[in-house]
Amino acid sequence: MSSTAFLVYYCVLILLSSVVGGMIPVWWNLTHRWMEVAVSFVAGIIFGVAVLHMLPHALVSALEQPGSEMNSTIMNLMTWFVIGFLAMFFIERFFCFHHHEAPADEEHVYDEQHVHGPGCSHEPHSDHAHDITWTGAAVGLTLHSLLAGVALAASVAHGHGGGLLPGLGTFLVIFLHKPFDAMTIAMLMARSGYSISARSYVNALFSLAIPAGAGLFLLGLSPEVGPTWFALPPALAFSAGVFLCIAGSDLLPELQFHHHDRWKLSTALLLGLTVAYLAGRMEGHSHGPRPNTANTPASAQM
């Protein structure tokens, strides 16, 4: 199966997960406790994919290229890693959108609200905790999803060189995290009085951001732009930085604001890391010396 076919299948499944995520507040009455457990689990997968998949693959792929020099190659990729982290960091800082809370919680009294970004409140039971608007969240999450789409396409393109399930780890990250993002927009629109049909329409548009990001990456790999293997390792390093920032924004506030259920949250994190590791094994991608690399067309090295 071609890498494009894998990417199309992944995008279709992610579209479905986004649509379902937008309807979760309508179908189920979620609680704060189980929302945090789910977020910790998915954040563990994101963290694992970033540091166990994307970054090592970027380094190895770049060093396999003809004429690569170790010190400059590593510095270049780590620079792209930092750029990816900062890109996601500033998107979250200026749009204040990374908000994963249950719409209602009758089982647990919050220690403090969990909202990220400047101008967002950490005051317990404060009305200011929900000052974030759905439009700001939608813009921030759309930019976030475009970067995730780039990460998915880069992982599939890289893994197709010798993997059984190319990009599986990245797909799992987006597939499991996308419902939280869609749910955030749906809940904020509901608080603003929008109907279910309006929320569904906006969510349908939002779900297209992942395929759009993947498409942007594929355009960058077109033969008219240049050799594909120049773009792939930096894209993987950039995506690793993006994913690490997302994982940190989900995990680090627990240390300060979620002293309850620390064992459950820690166990969920470790389970997520385990899933990331197993996904890497299932991808089946392996690196090694590439014969006649210097004479091999760039498009054939993917």
From TrEMBL:
<dbReference type="InterPro" id="IPR003689">
    <property type="entry name" value="ZIP"/>
</dbReference>
<keyword id="KW-0472">Membrane</keyword>
<dbReference type="GO" id="GO:0016020">
    <property type="term" value="C:membrane"/>
</dbReference>
<dbReference type="Pfam" id="PF02535">
    <property type="entry name" value="Zip"/>
</dbReference>
<protein>
    <submittedName>
        <fullName>ZIP family metal transporter</fullName>
    </submittedName>
</protein>
<keyword id="KW-1133">Transmembrane helix</keyword>
<feature type="transmembrane region" description="Helical">
    <location>
        <begin position="263"/>
        <end position="280"/>
    </location>
</feature>
<feature type="transmembrane region" description="Helical">
    <location>
        <begin position="201"/>
        <end position="222"/>
    </location>
</feature>
<feature type="transmembrane region" description="Helical">
    <location>
        <begin position="132"/>
        <end position="157"/>
    </location>
</feature>
<feature type="transmembrane region" description="Helical">
    <location>
        <begin position="74"/>
        <end position="91"/>
    </location>
</feature>
<feature type="transmembrane region" description="Helical">
    <location>
        <begin position="228"/>
        <end position="251"/>
    </location>
</feature>
<feature type="transmembrane region" description="Helical">
    <location>
        <begin position="6"/>
        <end position="30"/>
    </location>
</feature>
<dbReference type="GO" id="GO:0005385">
    <property type="term" value="F:zinc ion transmembrane transporter activity"/>
</dbReference>
<feature type="transmembrane region" description="Helical">
    <location>
        <begin position="37"/>
        <end position="54"/>
    </location>
</feature>
<keyword id="KW-0812">Transmembrane</keyword>
<feature type="transmembrane region" description="Helical">
    <location>
        <begin position="163"/>
        <end position="180"/>
    </location>
</feature>
